[in-house]
Specification:
The chain is an alpha/beta fold and about 475 residues long. It is about 50% helix and about 10% strand. It has 21 helices and eight strands. Helix 14 packs antiparallel against helix 17.
Amino acid sequence: MGAASRAGGGRPCDRDIDVAVLAATRELLVEVGYPGLTYALVASQAGSSRPALYRRWPSKAHLVFDALFPSRIDDAPVDDPTFRAYLHAIITRVAASYRRPVARAAVPFLLGEIHDPERRRSIVDRLQVEAHRDLATRVSQAIVAGELVEATDPTLLLETVHAAALHHALGEETDDPEFAGELVALVLDGAPTRPGRGLGQPTCRTRDRSLVTDDGTRIVYRTGGCGGPALVFVHGWCSNRTHWDAQLGHFATSRRVVAVDRRGHGRSDVTTDGYTPARHARDLAEVVRRERLDEVVLVAHAGGGPTALAYADRHPDTVIALVLVDTFISGRTPLGRPHSAGRSPLGQLVDQLTGPDGAERFAATYRRFFSSAAGPEAEAAVRDAMAVPLRVARADLASLAADSEGPARRLRCPVLWLTVAPADIARLITVFRVVHFGVVVGSGHFPHLEVPDQVNAMIERFLTVVGPQA
């Protein structure tokens, strides 16, 4: 709440000074952290004085709490004056407050400050009285309107919102636009379930998370579901995690699922280097560790295959099965000199992505990956591919010349080789120790997008055949 509205003695508060002080507090929390924040620093940056700050906020905790959490929530949109819309606005505002870097810097220390009941009353209850009063008024109006039951407790409701938003912010590093709506539905409608693949199985949601790798790269991934072993999906060349959504939705009812944006793709950071199966595998390992997955089934498409094989080669005890979707394996393949007659087919494809017409040729190449029967998912995938910088596309493509046959021959777990055309069975059974084959019907190079039901069914059957551990 604004300092001008607080009870107490002293001279009248200047609203402009309050705004400047609270803004300076937020900026300094990010710069120096809660322990390093002092009234002297805040006063200097805000153009105020320490005595003026102490008149408004008796302690640093009071000041920081007021800077983080505005007590008053904007009114619901005029076109939707319902309590549901109002609660959605509260949750959106509170969740946004907790997600900000300033909140991450201060909340752990504030929790320590308010551990003592007397201090909690002084900080939280005093500063949040306006929010409680406003919510209580809205709850009373909603009860009269028949939107809420008479026993609704506004204090418990506000505590539920803050607790859920804080827990969500601790677990999520990226914005989840569905969070507010889902929490509103849970609070007002209860927790219904919808049938999944079996009677009584709930439909599980997925959410995006992120981490920063050992070289400072932010990797975004999508995860959800429960049960194990987890299915970990690795996309192909110039694709992204969303291309596995049909598989995530299908398998999340019975397993943990994770789909990763490889560096340079989707929402993960674009870096100057690191576009190799080995580096992608290291990034993947950090995600697996972050999610505490002891055993995984890797599912990789096309250019993601070498990444999955590199990961399995380095972590053989965690990979219990591998699904390779329309991918390839080969020994190390020299690319040849750029634009030369001796350039390899892979090198020639890299060359096509250079020059003023590189982007146009790139789009045309990607469109050819889909069958003539493909729906709007084909153009969506092309748009996603075009969002990948050309230098990343070239580097990631060139990296496929690395040896993937060596890791494949060392693989101990069973493999599903899933393709859109008949496979070279005679060769593959000499490469893998245990390999099963599946061929989809009526699809181009992206069967998980074009014919997801076929792909899901084959993966399901494979996991059943290879045994209970998978």
